[in-house]
Amino acid sequence: MNVVSVMAHQDDELMCLGTMLKMRERGDTLSIICVTDGSGGMIQAPEMPRAEAADIRDREMRALAARIDATYLCLGEQDEYLYDTPDVRLRLIDALRVCRAEVIFTHFNPDYNIDHTTVHELVRQCAMHGPFPMTKTAAAPLSATPAVFCIEPSGGFGFEPTHYVDISAQIAEKRELARCHQSQDEAFHAGLGIGIDDWICETSRYRGSQVSVEHAEGFRPFFARGFIKPYAILP
Q: What would the pLDDT profile of 123-158 be if each residue is shown by its tens digit?
């Protein structure tokens, strides 16, 4: 299957990265789409120009994508000022078609960050339109509506998983890959006093404890016609 992470920012994919690694192991193809440029994430360097910040975030995300043999696409919208517009919708539909998306991971709604919730709504609309031939983009329409799963928001508020994936065997690689986001590792140390790899483990340990494994990622599907499939998708 063609598995696509569609997130607002570079590093948001970390809440599904263990599962994506597990899906890669069974032969699935991986892609990562970021809707914004990530330029608003440098809390440790508030005077950094946005263009420089965006360039750093782009290099970090490309490095991670290369290490997992994933396609990376960035729509380049301004971080923290994302809006659902006709142009953004069409470009996201085209990106999903380029990736031939069959499974999508994206943000949960509610979430603390409005960029995240905007991406959630964009995915709901754009994944639905991906197969529609009357929606014209450069890439050809998808053959079917992708299955869509929501990742856990930071802090987990309002989120109760319906699906769990045991990532105990993938956690070491996931932690190593998380450190590709060096700028965000520095931001986590500045803001929370812990590294980004430690932060992701807090959640996966908790979800793992719920299902009696060391580390797990939790998900909720889009409960809507077309997005639910009558067969198993997650490993």
A: 999 999 999 999 999 999 999 999 999 999 998 889
Residue 204: exposed, middle, or buried by beta-carbon count in 10 A (0-12, 13-18, 19+)?
buried
CATH superfamily, domain 2-221, is: LmbE-like (3.40.50.10320)
C-beta atoms surrounding 161 within 10 Å: 19
In the chain, where the domains are located: 2-221
Q: Are 65 and 71 within 8 A, CB to CB?
A: yes
Polymer length of the chain: 235
Structure tokens at 10: 């570079």
pLDDT score of 26: 97
pTM of the predicted structure, to 2 decimals:
0.97
> Across the chain, what does the average pLDDT equal?
97
**Do strands 163-166 and 147-150 pair parallel, antiparallel, or not at all (unpaired)?**
unpaired
Alpha carbon of 155 to those of 30, 111, 123, 158, 178: distances in Å? 26, 9, 22, 9, 18
